[in-house]
Design a protein that fits this description.
With about 200 residues, this protein is of the alpha/beta class. Helix content is about 40%, strand content about 15%. It has a seven-stranded mixed beta sheet with strand order 3-2-1-4-5-7-6, sandwiched between helices.
């Protein structure tokens, strides 16, 4: 039954900033030398204000906030927004360093295409649900659960256009390393690539 399916998804998918891979990355990650902080411009002592336009489980936003950035997270899925809200509240209640990071994160519920023009963002991070890879193995269970909730982000091209029109300094598109460029979007200013992910950086303004 549909309501049981939703309950199972909520039980299986948890937004956790205090343990597991997120905690490990917080404690032992590569600091500002990691690909994402470099992509958003966290170098030379600069700490931009970032809007994460597709927040998901908030892990990228948490990483940037842990390095000192002020991050606004936008999530339009009510279910995903609820998971994020609960995860941030638990982290806040836990106190300590993680709670200090959460204080630099602000969660908004809505469509980023409507909200971005009201925020005057310095940097916008866009991480849409990626197109299926041509020769990919089975999608990770967690990613499959997220996809079930948020869908395929078929309007991600429209979101990118709004981001490019509203960001004051740069837009960062997180994209599979071997995927074709997003259709209808001009080539990026530069790219930062990892093993499975690349960051297409669009300098604006």
């Amino acid at each position: 039954m549909p309501h049981n399916d939703k309950t199972q998804r909520q039980v299986a998918l948890i937004c956790d900033f205090t343990g597991g891979a997120v905690r490990h990355r917080f404690q032992f990650g590569g600091g500002r030398g990691q690909a994402l902080p470099r992509a958003v411009g966290m170098k030379g002592g600069k700490t931009p204000m970032v809007v994460d336009a597709t927040a998901g489980l908030g892990r990228d936003a948490f990483l940037l906030a842990s390095l000192g950035a002020t991050v606004i997270l936008i999530e339009r899925s009510p279910e995903m927004h609820g998971l994020l809200e609960e995860g941030m509240a638990r982290a806040q209640d836990a106190g300590g360093e993680v709670a200090e990071v959460i204080k630099r994160m602000t969660l908004l519920h809505g469509d980023a295409r409507n909200l971005l023009p009201t925020l005057s963002p310095e940097v916008v991070l866009v991480d849409p649900m990626h197109p299926p890879q041509k020769k990919s193995a089975l999608v990770k269970n967690e990613m499959r659960l997220i996809r079930n909730i948020v869908g395929m982000d078929e309007d991600s091209g429209d979101l990118m256009k709004v981001a490019l029109a509203t960001a004051r300094k740069r837009v960062v598109l997180k994209w599979p390393q071997r995927a074709d460029p997003m259709e209808g979007i001009a080539p990026p200013s530069h790219r930062i690539t990892g093993k499975t992910t690349r960051y297409d950086v669009f300098m604006v303004g």
